[in-house]
Amino acid sequence: MTDEGHEGVVATAEGDAERAIERAEDRLPSEMTTPAPGLLPGELRPHPTPVQYVTVAVVLVVITAIEIATSYTEGTIPDAVIVVLLLGMAFVKFFLVAAWYMHLRTDAPLFRRFFILGAVAAVLLYLIVLTTLHALS
Amino acid sequence: MAAVEQVEQGAPPAVPTEPAHTDAQATHSGVISPKLGMWLFLSSDCLFFGAFIATFLLYRDRPGQKGPTPADVFDIPFTSVTSFILLMSSLTMVLALAAIQRGDHRRFRTWIMATALFGATFIGGQIFEFTQFTREGLNLDTNLFGSSFFVLTGLHGAHVTVGIIWLLSLWGLSMQGRIGQHQSEAIEIAGLYWHFVDVVWIVIFTVIYLIPK
């Protein structure tokens, strides 16, 4: 799978997850479908509702199940494809937890920038280290 | 990502609300200092865990290692169950936060205790896994794979243990009536730590356990 194809899969999965969450708010008590009252400093929008939290959890469980199933396809499809799929699904899970449960989608961009800085720095730094040391060995 | 960009571009809140009554003090940047501090800590912790994941990837397949290999010892179904439990603990954590923000102390205590119990179950599973590996001949000093694996997952387990102690402290404070609706930011900060532990495990589970060797 190409990088573009991989990005497309990730984007589609993110879109599906968000649409599933948006569809989930019906036939439930108002306390489950309305956000908690009030905004704290640094919050731009209300936090998700409990039903949205549950929907995110369902999506996470489904993705985890697909991940595990994918790992058992070793030997039937090329390893490179499995690696791309597994990393893509891990990224979607990471994104969903960070955006919805850690409230990065509703909080001030400053928090998001700090977290992205650390995560991207970690990935880049250790990719360089791994590449260099593997090349040396 | 569209929602994130919408917020970035200064779109108005979907549901305009009054500021919450809170003890939280905003800084000149408009955010709460402890929360900003937690995000800075989590950002640095990304580099911390990144170092140990990179070390594991570097040493896992070094030739000439004696003793068990990952394929010999990993039990994917068992680890999948413990991963599922940790994932569910993130759900109970946000439900606890939502409960305290509504002033529902009974549900808050239920969800926060459920989160701690899920975390304790995960740690129990990790101890069981470590015991099994030891029985199969993989110890901290058996080979490079063993050293890097036990250090990485052990450090993650230590983070989870700290989180459990934190959650139980919040539960105890709530039982004493010392946590009110206006202190929900303290619960949110604990939640940020807990969710971070979860996202780190998402990476560890995929990179260490699932990706083909």
Structural description of this entry:
The complex is a heterodimer of chains A (137) and B (213). By secondary structure, chain A is mainly α. Chain A contains 5 helices and no strands. In chain A, α1 packs antiparallel against α3 and α3 packs antiparallel against α4. Chain B has a single domain, classed as Four Helix Bundle (Hemerythrin (Met), subunit A), CATH 1.20.120.80. In chain B, α4 packs antiparallel against α5 and α5 packs antiparallel against α6. The radius of gyration of chain B is 20 Å and the shape is elongated. The chains are: A mainly alpha (137), B mainly alpha (213). At the A-B interface, α1, α3, α4 and α5 of A face α1, α2, α4 and α7 of B.
Number of strands of chain B: 0
Strand content of chain B: under 5%
List the secondary-structure elements of chain B in sequence, H or E. HHHHHHH
Mean pLDDT of chain A: 82
Which protein chains make the most extensive interface, counting residues with beta carbons within 8 Å of the other chain's beta carbons? Answer: A-B, 70 and 72 residues
Computed over alpha carbons, the radius of gyration of chain B is 20 Å
Order of helices and strands of chain A: HHHHH
Overall number of structural domains of chain B = 1
- Give the overall form of chain B: elongated
Q: pLDDT below 50 for ≥5 consecutive residues: which ranges of chain A?
A: none
Which range does the strand content of chain A fall in? under 5%
Biggest sheet overview of chain A: none
Feature tags:
heterodimer, A: 137 residues, mainly alpha, 72% helix, 0% strand, B: 213 residues, Four Helix Bundle (Hemerythrin (Met), subunit A), 7 helices, 73% helix, disordered N terminus
Helices and strands, with pairings:
The complex is a heterodimer of chains A (137) and B (213).
Chain A: H1 3-23, H2 30-33, H3 50-71, H4 79-101, H5 109-136
Helix pairs in contact in A: 1-3, 1-4, 3-4
Chain B: H1 2-8, H2 33-60, H3 70-73, H4 76-101, H5 105-135, H6 144-175, H7 184-210
Helix pairs in contact in B: 2-6, 2-7, 4-5, 4-7, 5-6, 6-7
